[in-house]
Amino acid sequence: MNHWRKELWASIAAGWMLIAVSFTFNYYHYAHHYVEIFSTPPTFLQMLVLEIPYWILWAAMAPVVFKLAERFPVRRESWNLNAVVHIAACFCLTLAHRVVYLAACRLLYVDAYRNIPTLIDLYRSDLFFNLPTGFMSYATFLLVGNVMEFYSKSAKAELQALKAQLQPHFIFNTLNSISALQMTDVEAANRMTARLGEFLRFTLDSSGTNEIPLRREVELLQSYLEIEQVRFQDRLNVEMDIAAETLDLAVPSLILQPIVENAIRHGIASKTTPGHIQIQAVRSNGTLRLDVRNDGQLLHGANGVPRKDRVGIANTKARLIQLYGNGHRFDMMNAVEGGVLVRIEIPAHK
Question: Taking a C-beta distance cutoff of 8 angstroms, is the pair 348, 283 a contact?
Fold first, then answer.
C-alpha cells in the first residue's frame, strides 16, 4: 500500500513537472505569436469568437475520452500499459482538435489569423501552438471519467453485495424458524427476532461504508451465527480464533458474513451429521489473513478449485479488487485437513 502511494505521488509530481515544462516551451517558442495576437488588446467579442469554438470542440470530444477511460482505466494492476495508451490518445486528440479548431477559426474569420493567406499556412504556423492546454483538457476529462467509473462500479458492487447478503431464502428461513419457535420456545424466538433485526439494521447502516474495524465485523457475524445456530441447533458448531492484535484492523464491511453463509449452505446444510466451521484472523508481516473453513463437502473443480464462483463469493472478490487491487489475495480450495477453506489476505491497516 505504501509502495503504491509513493508511486502515485511520484507520478503526480512527474506529471505536473511535464505540464510545467510543456507550457514553458510553448510560451518560449511561440512568444512572437503571443505578441502578434495581443499587440492590440482584443475586444470582449473577439475573445468570445476565439475561445468559444475551442472549448465547444473539447466538449464534443469528451465522450471519446470517457470511452477511453472506461476501456483503459488507470488502475494499479494495469496503469503502466494504460498510461501509454492515454499519452498517445492525448497527443492524437489534441492534434485533431487543433486541426478542426484552426479550420473553424478560418471560417469564422478570427482576427488573430486574418493575415495568414491559406489554411495550410495556418497549420504550418499554429498547429502545435498551445498544445499544453489541450493536454490539460484531456487529463481533466480522463480524471472525471475515472472518478465516474470508480463510483459506478463501487455502487454496483455494493448493491450486488447487499443483494447477496439479504437473499430471500435467508430471510424466509429465519422467519419460518421464528414462527415455529413461537409455539415451543418463545424466548428463543424473541432472541432470534432481535438478532435478525440487529443484522438487518447493521447491513443497511454499513451500506455506504467501505471499511470497518474487524471487531465490529465479528459482532455482526456473531449476530448472524446466533440466528443460524437457532435454526441448525446442535448441527452447527462454530469456533472463532481472532487474534487480539487484529481486532482494530480495518476490513471491508460485511466481508465475512457471505463467506460463512456460503460455508453453511454448501458445507453444513447438506450434512446429516453435525458440521464444524472455523474462523481465524491473524496478522503477519503487514498482512491481515482471514480464514473460514468448514468440514463439509469438498470442491469438485480441477485441483480443488470451484469451476464457477457463486454469487456471494463473486461479489466478495469484486469488492476486494475495488478496494485493494493487486494488494490482496483470495483463495478458495479444499483444505488439507478436510472440508473447504476460504482465505483472504489484505494489507493490515487501521
Answer: yes
pLDDT in tens, 95-115: 999 999 999 988 887 777 777
CA pair distance 68, 313, nearest whole angstrom: 30
Kindly list the domain boundaries of the chain, sorted by start residue: 2-151, 166-347
Neighbours of 260 (CB within 10 A): 22
Contact 296, 275 (CB under 8 A): yes
Q: How far apart are CA 350 and CA 347, in angstroms?
A: 10
Lowest mean pLDDT among 64-68, 111-115, 156-160, 248-252: 156-160
CATH 3.30.565.10 assigned to 166-347 = yes
pLDDT band at 291 (very low <50, low <70, confident <90, very high): very high
Length of the chain: 350
Q: Please, are residues 350 and 250 in contact by the beta-carbon 8 Å criterion? A: yes
Residue 68 is placed in which grid cell? 477511453
- Among the ranges 16-30, 43-57, 209-223, 239-253, which has the highest mean pLDDT value? 239-253
CA angle 9, 13, 15 (to 5 degrees): 115
pTM, to two decimals: 0.55
Contacts of 135 (CB under 8 A, 6+ apart): 19, 22, 90, 91, 94
Q: How far is CA 49 from CA 44, 78, 108, 118, in A?
A: 9, 41, 8, 19
CB atoms within 10 A of CB 13: 10
